[in-house]
Amino acid sequence: MSDTRYPTLTLFVGGAWLSGDGRDFHQVINPATGETLAELPLATPADLDAALDAAAKGFKLWSRVSAYDRAKVLRKAAELIRERADQIATMMVLEEGKPFAEARVEVMGSADQFEWFAEEGRRAYGRLIPARTEGVRQIVMKQPIGPVAAFAPWNFPAVTPARKIAASLGAGCSCIIKPAEETPATCLALAKALDDTGLPKGVLNVVFGVPAQVSSHLIKSATIRKVSFTGSTAVGKQLAAMAATEGAKRTTMELGGHAPVVVFEDADIEAAAALSVAAKFRNAGQVCVSPTRFYVHDRVHDDFVARVTSLAAALPVGDGLDPATKMGPLANSRRIDAMTKLIDDAVSHGAKLKTGGERIGNRGYFYKPTVLADVPVEARIMNEEPFGPVAVTSRFTSFDEVVAQANRLPFGLASYSFTSSVKYATAIADALESGMVGVNTFAITVAETPFGGIKESGYGSEGGIEGLDAYLNTKFVAQA
Q: What's the rounded Cα separation, in Å, for the pair 9 and 26?
C-alpha cells in the first residue's frame, strides 16, 4: 500500500469523492506480485441511494444542456485523459497486469470514445416525415432515455467504462457506473478528468461494492431507465431479466464469446500466424473477442501450428511495467486454476500440447503462452470460453464443414478469417454467426464502429452511431 504510483481509492457520488470512513473494504491486488495495492471502499445502501438521487437530479440538469455544450465537456475530458495517459496507464498495469504499451493504447482509445461521442451527440438527429394531410407536421425526435446504470469488467478498465460513460453523457443521460472492484483506479481517473472539466455534480457517479447487491439495488430503482452490462453470459441473463421485470428497462448486453478463426489454405500463413499470436496473447488472452478456436485447413495446419508455437514460446512474459514484457500476468489466481483444468482436460481428450501449459514461478499470476493442436470437439476448451493465454486448433477440409464448426456454439461475439480469395472472404463473412467479423485482421474495435454480439453473446452495440442510439428514446410528434 506504499506504491506512490497508485492513488488512494474513493467513491464518487454527487460530485464528492468519498473516503472509506465507516465503509467495508475490498483489497486491490497487484497481479504481478500478489501484494495489496490499496483498500477500496465499498458503497453502503445509503451511498447507492445518494448516487441514485444525484443521478436523477443530474439528469434533469444535463438533459437540458445543449448537445453543443455537452460536447465541449466531453472533448475537454478527452484532452485531459490524453495528457494523463502515462499516469493512468501505470495505474492500469499495477491493478490489471497488462503491459504498459497495451495499457497506454487502451487509455488513448478511451479518450477517442469521449471525443467520438462528443461529436456524435451533436448529430442525434430526428426527421420530418411527409404527412398525408395538408397542414400536418409529423416529427421524429431523439431524446435522452434517462439515468443509466452501467457495469464494467476488469479486463479493459479504461475503454469499457469509457464506452458507457461517453455514450450516456453524449446522449444527455446521467450515469452511475460500477467498474470492477479488481481495477478501480482506472475508471476513477476517467471520472476525475470529467470532474476537472466542470461536469455538473451528479451527472456521473462511480460506486463499488458486492456486485450482486449493487446491481440489484440500482436496477430495481425506478430512477434507472437504462442498463448497460459487459461481462459473463450467466450474469448478463440475470441482469436482463431483472431489468425486464423492474420497469421494462432498456438494456445493452455485451456478454461472453469464444471466437473462431478460419484459416483457409490460400492464406498467407506467415502473416496469419504473426497476427494471431499478437491478438491471442494480448492482455494474456483475457479479452472477450480474443481469437481462440483456430480452424485451419488440413493442407496448411501443421505449418500454421509450427509458426504459432514458435512465436508463442518466444513471447517475453513478465511485469507489465518492464519494457521487455509482451505478456503480463493473469488477473488473479482463479484464472490460473481455470487454465490448468481446461488444458489438462484437453490433453486427456487427445489434444497435443505444443508449448506452455504451466504456471511461471510462484509469485504473481504468470502463465506460459499455450498452444494446443488437434483438439477434439469433446474437450471443454472447445466449448467453454477459456479467457486466458491459450490457442487451440482443429483441422477442416471443406467450407461447409468449417462454417458448421465455427457456428456450433451458442456464442456470437466475434469471428475471424484469413484468406487471399475475395470469394472466400465474402462467403465466410456472410456465413459466420457473430456481431463482428474480421477478415485478414483482428482490428475490429474503434470508437466509430459498433461493438456487440448476437446469440448468447448479447444484444445491442456500443460504439458507433448505434452506441449513441442505445441511450436515446424515439418520440413521434404529430402536429395538426
A: 10
The domains of the chain are located at 11-255+457-479, 259-447
pLDDT in tens, 109-120: 999 999 999 999
Interatomic CA distance for residues 441 and 267, integer angstroms: 12
Compute the distance between CA of residue 381 and CA of residue 257 in angstroms, rounded to an integer. 12
Please check whether the domain covering 11-255+457-479 is classified as CATH 3.40.605.10.
yes
> If you write DSSP's letter for every residue of 1-18 in order, what string do you get?
---TTSPPP-EEETTEEE
Q: Is the Cβ–Cβ distance between 271 and 303 less than 8 Å? A: no
Phi-psi region of 429 (alpha: psi -120 to 50; beta: other; left: phi over 0): alpha
- Angle among Cα 115, 116, 119 to the nearest 5 degrees reads 90
Question: Which residues form the catalytic set?
Answer: 254, 288
User: CA geometry: angle at 390 spanning 430 and 179, to 5°?
Assistant: 80
**Domain at 259-447: CATH code:** 3.40.309.10
Per-residue pLDDT, 22: 87
Contact 77, 194 (CB under 8 A): yes
CA atoms of 464 and 213, how far apart (whole Å):
31
Q: Which three cell numbers stand for residue 161?
A: 467504462
Query: The pTM is what?
Result: 0.96
What's the rounded Cα separation, in Å, for the pair 118 and 124? 11
Instruction: Give which of 282, 369, 364 is closest to 319, Cα–Cα.
Output: 364
Strand, coil or helix: 478: strand
For residue 224 the three cell numbers come to 434507472
- Summarize the confidence of residues 386-415 as an average pLDDT: 98
Strands 259-263 and 414-418: parallel
Residue tagged 455534480 (cell numbers): 201
The predicted-structure confidence for 257-316, as pLDDT tens digits, reads as follows 999 999 999 999 999 999 999 999 999 999 999 999 999 999 999 999 999 999 999 999
Name which of 474, 434, 431, 475 is nearest 457 in CA terms. 434
Q: How confident is the model at residue 2 (pLDDT cuts 50, 70, 90)?
A: low
